[in-house]
Design a protein that fits this description.
By secondary structure, this protein is mainly β. It has 5 helices and 26 strands. A hairpin with a 4-residue loop joins strand 25 and strand 26. The protein is globular, with a radius of gyration of 23 Å.
Amino acid sequence: MHGAVAAQNVFVEPSGRALVSDFGLGSEGATQDSDRAAFAALVRECLGDRLPAPVTPPPSSAAAIVGSAAGALPERRTPRWLWKAIVAVVAGAAALAATGVLLAGSEDEPEPAPPVLQGAQALGSALPATGVEPLDCNGRPPTGASPLCTLVQTRLPGRPVIPRRDGAIRRWTVRGARGVLALQVLRRRGGMFVSTARTRYEQIPDEGVHAFQADLPIREGDEVGVQVAPGAAIGVRRDVRGAQTARSFGPLTRTALPVERGERSGFGEEVLLRVEYLPGAEPDLPGRLTGRAAKQAPAGQQLAALDVKPPDGPVRRTSVVRVGDRIAVDLFQRERRITRLPVAGADARGRLLSVNTHGEPTVYLRWRNPDGRTISHDYAVSSRSMTPSS
């Protein structure tokens, strides 16, 4: 039994072969029937009502497996509450139309990009509504074989793409994208990209304008990129004079990867990503302790410790501690604690499953709560601070 059969746990190789991940991280009460029902829901998510016709043996064939799972699909029915909501929306739209108000996103008027947050500076695209194309990491319409990559706008005439001061990212917005995306803060290390922070992954339902809150640190000279999951697309505009991008394949949260530029990457266009950051601000992380508060915090019970080598300084020690009814991660400069971060969602009555670095300046932590739920967090480590990177 898998216990968490869902789209985010299926990866597709360039050849089209599907790989299932995260075994053992789902519900402990999973059964064969619950896995079949979850797979059936995934089939419907991918195929809608275009289900394959029933097949005869061999039962191990892909078509037979899908056909068997399809038998677990319930009949599509629209709940009464949804019908009421649809009626209310239609009535509201009719009332607006009667008063001459145009609906955002209509065919007559493309959906506008939201105004930049007060006091923030924008990096990247102004998100124009014309000439938009959704493309995958190879610069083509996305398919099930589209790979994972991170795209970075390195030059866009008339628009800043790199911050001139340290600060904190508060929001990111895309147009023309669809599928699973995440925002990344990147730092150059020679000809390599290293991820210093990342938002959670967001599911983009359509190719309109979508804005997401963020709270990531960014330093002067850092770059921002959008991580495009397998099968997803990012909106671009072709033939933008002077626009340049860079691209790296693979998960930048785990390793430094080489940078590709120009025609080799298939991208020289404008990437429709806008990032808003507040110069001089710091991430607003509930429960974070720094400075004297971190130094004087109670030591607690140490559960694990490991050394991390950040890209901007010497080795730092990190430790996972139980402090009363909370679990936290500490960062030390020699013997002095300089940062403490609570582990969001972790119940102190649970247990630590693993904590490691994979040789990179990121701490990967997995915790299991008493109810069987697994909590996973990544923490990006610099010489001066530590922040959640997902």
